[in-house]
């Protein structure tokens, strides 16, 4: 049996490097995490008190609900999700080809454009570093 | 026209998603994700936010069906969806380790739905023949939660007919309790 992604040391190591790179690209990053589609924290970097496992579960719910909305409106899966608030914004998106979500919290002064492009770049870089996921792991027969 | 909102709760793999897919007359809203922990419960996907479906019973009883994720780490979804519901079908997979005690724990977690409407327990996956079977659940309820009046059935969530029976029993139970409730209040000092 394959090892769960959130316990795979290779994925954790690559993920940590990718998230650290992201914080360098965008110093406004307050919190960044990689989580499995079903909401397990894989790795996170943090400058704040956040309960990592709870945030991971919530992010995966949001991701799945966004996909459900995309399906309902017949616009396909969500490419990214943005949540804005006075004290920061959250951006999350899938790592292409992997059952993994990147979720990050940025300081409110950061422009959405910069935050989004940084998150995308990080996701793409990580995707290149990870071996292709087994298709079974990606197949969530929702619809 | 009566409207009901019914929650499907219970542990991972009990068949909540399966039950809503069996019952719903509309295309269900699903939030399945690949299951990372197949060594815990061996199935391909798990619910990470909710299931949603609808069914009409009789001429005009519209029932909204919400399923919650079974895993406790999604209990924030329990809190959100609980507020909407007036009744609950608690599914328990008979073949899971410690299934009887798990039922008691989940019933405690959703106790407010019992107070507000009604609850019914459906024991699933009994056909696999590895669990303690129906009587063990009724006995545990009577011994440990004697104040609860909760019907217990075996049910196969894959079977729409069986699920309809359970659902109609729950709704009858909720309506009966609603009818009796004002009378009970009237005699209270
Ligand atoms: N043999 C047998 N299989 C069943 C029965 N009820 C459900 N199943 C199967 O058990 C599995 C239940 O999975 P789900 O419906 O995803 O369970 P769930 O309660 O939604 O689980 P989570 O969303 O992960 O909490 C499915 O593969 C069903 O086909 C039953 O009575 N007998
Ligand atoms: Mg489910």
UniProtKB/TrEMBL annotation, chain A:
SUPFAM superfamilies: Roadblock/LC7 domain
Protein's name in the database: Roadblock/LC7 domain-containing protein
Organism listed in the record: Schumannella soli
From TrEMBL, chain B:
Pfam family, one: ATP_bind_1
Gene3D superfamilies, alphabetized: P-loop containing nucleotide triphosphate hydrolases
Keywords per UniProt: ATP-binding, GTP-binding, Hydrolase, Nucleotide-binding
Any one Gene Ontology molecular-function term assigned to this protein's record: hydrolase activity
Tree of life domain: Bacteria
Family: Belongs to the GPN-loop GTPase family.
Protein name: ATP-binding protein
